[in-house]
Amino acid sequence: xxxxxxxxxxxxxxxxxxxxxxxxxxxxxxxxxxxxxxxxxxxxxxxxxxxxxxxxxxxxxxxxxxxxxxxxxxxxxxxxxxxxxxxxxxxxxxxxxxxxxxxxxxxxxxxxxxxxxxxxxxxxxxxxxxxxxxxxxxxxxxxxxxxxxxxxxxxxxxxxxxxxxxxxxxxxxxxxxxxxxxxxxxxxxxxxxxxxxxxxxxxxxxxxxxxxxxxxxxxxxxxxxxxxxxxxxxxxxxxxxxxxxxxxxxxxxxxxxxxxxxxxxxxxxxxxxxxxxxxxxxxxxxxxxxxxxxxxxxxxxxxxxxxxxxxxxxxxxxxxxxxxxxxxxxxxxx
Length: 334
Prior knowledge:
By secondary structure, the chain is an alpha/beta fold. It has 10 helices and 16 strands.
């Protein structure tokens, strides 16, 4: 499965569920793994001037200061030496998402583990409570070509085994990447895969129950056809019902199915020179306590997968239209 795991943490003191999850996954898989910490810059013009992790004062990112950070991290995770596979700690300066992306390339990472990193935590130091994921994880998701695993509240189990996977389907190209990834993940863990599609309910008075039943039957048929190339030999089931807000219905399905992990595709897009992750990815990363695997690029699956190409036919020949309030909208992700 995964052979090189990167855990990106913004904590120096205290323990981050992200690091613990990466250690547990690497230990279970016999994979190599690394901790990457990007120092908090004190100035956007000089990233070698950083904020001290304890006092908040501006200091230089000298070799001595980096060694101090490394010692703090080794102390925080000293118990990992007893049971985890060997790991290294990398300290970097610069724009966090760029440095994480660069380190992932240097390490040939096939999985990046991160937290939502959005706003402040609540009083119990648990969930991030604001409405959007942070710029760091967003920057990584929208540019990385390997899966990104978001850990929000609890670390993965001591011996992570994903026996129940949930895949959110909207028939987009990125969703196809997520489905292919989930298929191989399901085969590796001998897991059951639940596939969910939210059927948008149009705000039309003339939209009857018969219309809804016909749309639902059509969506279920499309789900089966869409998933057929990736679900061979994997136990799976389809779930489809109406709703208005995708992430809320996906959360309901996760609770109903007692999901161990969620797999979704990110609708990465560019708007006026800035890149954005899809809204469902942002909301799921913050609202659910289950680990969330996010895939973006259509080239993701061939990079890490050993068993099959992304699709058995050209992407242009696949039906990637998204049904929204009675209209078919073509997904723009190549």
